[in-house]
Design brief:
Elements lengths: L2 E7 L7 H15 L4 E7 L1 H4 L9 H15 L6 E5 L5 H9 L5 H5 L2 H9 L6 H4 L1 H10 L5 E3 L5 H18 L7 E3 L30 H9 L16 H13 L1 H11 L6 H15 L1 H12 L1 H29 L4
Parallel strand pairs: 1-2, 2-3, 4-5
């Protein structure tokens, strides 16, 4: 029996280089492995748990799917759609809410962080975010979730809900595990933290022009270019990480040697790195142009994916409602 995989992306902006290296490449590996059955979604219902623009939500959600496809996700190998087309997610989330306490949710570090970030938007939807996430995963009986370490507290809630439901009602939900890629945490261009679309200047979009990439790298912080020890953190360390990813380990080692001897010319490093990134992303840009010119192809993927996903979701929801006494 194939293991089922679920992962989703909030519709808060276009996919960037960090998403591609840290998540999408892992998605592609999984979809190409016959032992896995994958579902990848733009989770637009999750998007409304924090402040958002209703006028742009639908377009932003569709753009996630467009970027998925341009980056290499294949609707012939994975179910690709948007969360709001499968209402069973929210119904199961309400049923799950009956087995988890308010106190447990309020003590989550991620919830506390969001309260600080959005003090005027502390809603029930925000509190229930991890419960909906549990429903997203478990409604497909998924056992593997590609995501970052920051999502581990939410996955623990998913495991707790699965155990509680299995104990109380005799369901057979799996205990999910987290899957990571070798570049699960992609560094920011601003020298600290990880690449994030919520931090301007920290990221590169997958369809950026060479000029944009050059400008963003030019703004990345550096130092004098010479010293006794190569920095292990900060802007220089992050640039060297990108050099290794896009130009290879030997190139990185040559820069590290130069740093402790003759010195590094960051202008040349950034120019060459920009070209390497731009060339590496060329197939994504080309496919993105093709899909943009044929919007019906993206719409077909979304609606066919929703049809396939709902068949799985309805089966699980019916079983849960039966075991909880509704049927």
């Amino acid at each position: 029996m194939r293991l089922r995989v679920f992962s989703g992306t909030r519709a808060t902006g276009r996919l960037h280089l960090g998403n591609y290296l840290g998540a999408i490449k892992g998605y592609i590996e999984l979809q190409n492995d016959p032992q896995y059955e994958c579902l990848y979604m733009a989770v637009d219902v999750h998007t409304i748990t924090t402040p958002y623009d209703p006028k742009t939500l639908a377009v932003a959600t569709r753009n996630i799917i467009l970027d998925y496809l341009a980056a290499g996700l294949d609707p012939q190998k994975a179910i690709i759609t948007k969360q709001s087309l499968i209402p069973e997610h929210t119904e199961l989330a309400f049923l799950f809410a009956s087995v988890v306490s308010v106190a447990r949710m309020q003590h989550l570090p991620t919830y506390k962080d969001k309260i600080k970030q959005f003090p005027e938007h502390v809603t029930m939807a925000l509190l229930n975010y991890p419960v909906l996430m549990a429903a997203d995963i478990l409604i497909y009986q998924a056992s593997l979730v590609p995501c970052g370490l920051d999502q581990e507290p939410h996955l623990e809630i998913t495991r707790e809900i699965a155990r509680k439901m299995n104990q109380l009602y005799g369901t057979t939900f799996p205990e999910v595990q987290r899957f990571t890629t070798p570049t699960a945490s992609v560094p920011s261009l601003i020298g600290e933290g990880k690449m994030s679309k919520s931090i301007e200047g920290s990221y590169l979009n997958l369809t950026d022009s060479l000029e944009t990439i050059e400008a963003r790298l030019a703004a990345a912080p550096t130092d004098s270019g010479q010293g006794k020890v190569v920095p292990a953190t900060g802007g220089v360390a992050n640039l060297l990480t990108f050099v290794e990813i896009f130009e290879g380990q030997a190139k990185r080692q040559s820069y590290e040697h130069a740093y402790t001897t003759t010195g590094i010319s960051y202008q040349a490093l950034k120019r060459d790195l920009a070209k390497a990134i731009y060339q590496d992303l060329a197939p994504i840009r080309e496919k993105h142009r093709t899909l943009t010119a044929k919007p019906h192809l993206v719409d077909e993927v979304i609606h066919q994916g929703a049809k396939r996903a709902r068949a799985l979701a309805q089966s699980t929801l019916h079983e849960v409602k039966e075991k909880m006494g509704f049927v």
